[in-house]
Design a protein that fits this description.
The protein is α+β, with helices and mostly antiparallel strands. The protein is 37% helix and 13% strand. It contains 21 helices and 15 strands. Strands 3-2-4-13-7 form a five-stranded mixed beta sheet. Helix 15 crosses helix 17 and helix 20 runs antiparallel to helix 21. The longest helix has 31 residues. The chain is globular and about 70 Å long. It starts with a helix and ends with a helix.
Amino acid sequence: MHKKLTAWSLIATLTATAALAGCGKTEDNKPADSSAQPAANKKINILLSHSEAAYAKQAKADDPYIKELSRLSGYDLKFEFLGHADYAQQLSLRFASGELGDLIRTPEINSTIHTGAVDQGVFLDLKPLIDKYGPNLKKKIPETAWNSPRVSKDGKIYGIPVLTGVPADRVVFVRQDWLDKLKLPAPKTIDDYLKYFEGVKKEDMNGNGDPNDEYGIGMFDGLGWTDIFSSAFGVSPGLYNLRNGQLTPDMIDPKMKDVISFYKKLYDNGYVNPNLFTRKEAEHNAAIAKGEIGSWGAAVYQYTAGYNAEGAKKTFLNQPGASVSMNAAPKGADGKGGLGAQGDDIYFVWVIPSKTKNPEEIIKFLDWAWSDPAADQFFAYGIKGTNYTEEGGKIKYDMAASVNADKNTFQMYQLSLNLREIGFASPLVLKAMPDADVMTKGYDLAKTNLIKHDGLYMPRLKSLDGKPELAIGFATGNLFTDMFAKVVTGTEPIDTAFDKFVSEWKKRGGDAVIKEATDWYNSFHKK
């Protein structure tokens, strides 16, 4: 998540003035009536993290955005922002002292921040209240989130999900101008990418006179972020799937040999930068800007932060005509492939302490936040007349205006006060971007890249605690990444190295990991 939130802050640099028709109207084209809100004068104290948002860190009780949200909703709202890096510690102290809010942010209902809270009756069972007062919560929040153990236990709902905003954002960025120069279509299959990589290797794509300083794909030491090919072979290093009645990590599946052999081919043929195991992300980004990289794993939101038509002029120095397109993950022989694992789409969870006096009003308030057009506009554009204007039924919003960009103020209404999701890519916000159509299509494309797996909802396994060498997937210092690097660089042969890794991983605690994962799977799925 830290990569995403950090990258989102780049959006504040956009120059995007958009005229958006009809955003302030309901479905029957009548103006949104913000006066028809839940009962007024209801006090709700909300305890949460400032999420490292600069504006929220310095927000006071009489902050204009808090006052506006109170006015629109009809509730007397108090937001108390605790720290972020030390939020768990601060919140734990609050639980110990009993100084809690009416509505509290927590990672999950079973968090170690408040161990045993569910079983001890500290949190309300919200299901009856949601059934009665929260029809839009049930309608708007996806079933994958409600089913998460971060929210529910034993058929009861103890938390209300706050969503990540988009279910998927991973795509492949490709230098479109290089494709055009090579007269190649957008790559779809593994073979398409290999053909493109060969063309990049042979031609002086960046025009600097050196045909040997470009690579078809760029990677850095965050291999889990830059690996775009594994799933095309039917496995993903960081995921678990059911095999012969056991939930086992893909990284020990024999099909992983095909993945590693493929990356060795990329390495041997000069299709990938040879320092992929040591290059840092900043160096990777610099190589992209220099015109040394032809494709790379990315996230949709990065497009407007430096790779759209205007951004490319600044990113790719001395490379006139440079352009980038978003592509789906490479497909293997069976037509499968993907980027990014399917998750529960939860950013954090709201809980209501059992001592709260007006829980029904809190549910009504959250229901309003998820359904009212006035809430939609506030969480997208902020305060009318301050952050945006409306003329002739059209909303004008400039994300780069100082009132929105200074101190990343846009984060206050799109993130910090947004009770339902990370709002940076909501439909209304996307409409305000200079490349609205491209971005929307990019997120739709990312959805097709999602990788389904059998470890969905699985909590962190205790058998992995204190054993970083057993970590699943690409991780610094673990057995898998060490073996992967040795084979790709030619230090060890694939068959003996892989078999030795699997044996060593199991012997050093992997068998216990598999047992714990399988026990969880059978229990969760009631086998």
